[in-house]
Amino acid sequence: MIKNIRNFIFDSDMNLILIFKEDFIDEGRRVCLTGRRHEHVLKIHRASIGDRLAVGLYGGGIGVGKIVELDENTLIMDVIFDRKVPGALPLTLVMALPRPIVLKRVLSTVSAFGVKRIVLFHARRVEKSFWKSPALREENLTHQLILGLEQARDTILPKVEMRTAFKPFVEDELPGIIGGTRAFVAHPESKRKCPYNVDHPVTLVIGPEGGFIPYEIEKLQKAGCIPVSLGERILRVESVIPALLSRIF
């Protein structure tokens, strides 16, 4: 985990203010916020002393923070975390590494949906240069995931894993990942429609822009993945993932 994770809370439409252990100024009740979270409360929420805001303890529960002091530099709240976070989505997302700008959007989206395990892997139509992108730095991945948590009022950070070789990953690791789940690979040429309301844990495999090549589809099928589609239309990665998640669950 990166150091000083609280520094990666940026201005966004926060539905939840994440609180970190470094924010506490007493034994578990009062917190002091400065910087971007303070600015957001001051300028976006336009809050004042006595107002109550939704808060969440990073890695813990959610609750309410009551503002007791607020000025141009500092926000002090009394907080209580008395509720559980929303349940995690019972899905592992296995995704061919998209373009960095697309990856950013996808990470915040799936984090908001409640996906807690994301595996990025290489495929033929993935540019090798993508693996060198700053978007894959831990602090940048964390930033996008936190935006999703704030949006959905969650506090549990998803885990992101990376696999840079297709064949070893699909042959040696993927069968273990999909064990005990229903495994689907999104493939627009499949005549099998993606199922609705799956009452079982799922592994969902998403290809790169341009799709998987036939060899890759064959390997994925041998590993246990069932090709499914949403119909004849070809959708972008950032569009197809929320469409599939909404349909599956």
Q: Biggest sheet, in brief?
A: 6 strands, parallel
Strand numbers in spatial order across the main sheet? 8-7-6-10-9-11
According to DSSP, the number of beta strands is 11
Q: Given the helix and strand composition, which structural class is it? A: alpha/beta
Q: What is the chain-wise order of helices and strands?
A: EEHEEEEHEHEHEEHEH
Radius of gyration: 20 Å
The share of residues in helices is: 25-40%
Structure characteristics:
alpha/beta, 6 helices, single chain, 249 residues, 6-stranded parallel beta sheet, disordered N terminus
Care to describe what's here?
- Strand 3 and strand 4 (62-70) form a beta hairpin.
- The strands form two sheets. This protein has a six-stranded parallel beta sheet with strand order 8-7-6-10-9-11, covered by helices on one side. It has a five-stranded mixed beta sheet with strand order 1-3-4-5-2, with helices on one face.
- By secondary structure, it is α/β, with parallel strands linked by helices.
- It is built from six helices and eleven strands.
- Helix 2 (100-113) packs parallel to helix 6 (237-248) and helix 4 (166-178) packs parallel to helix 5.
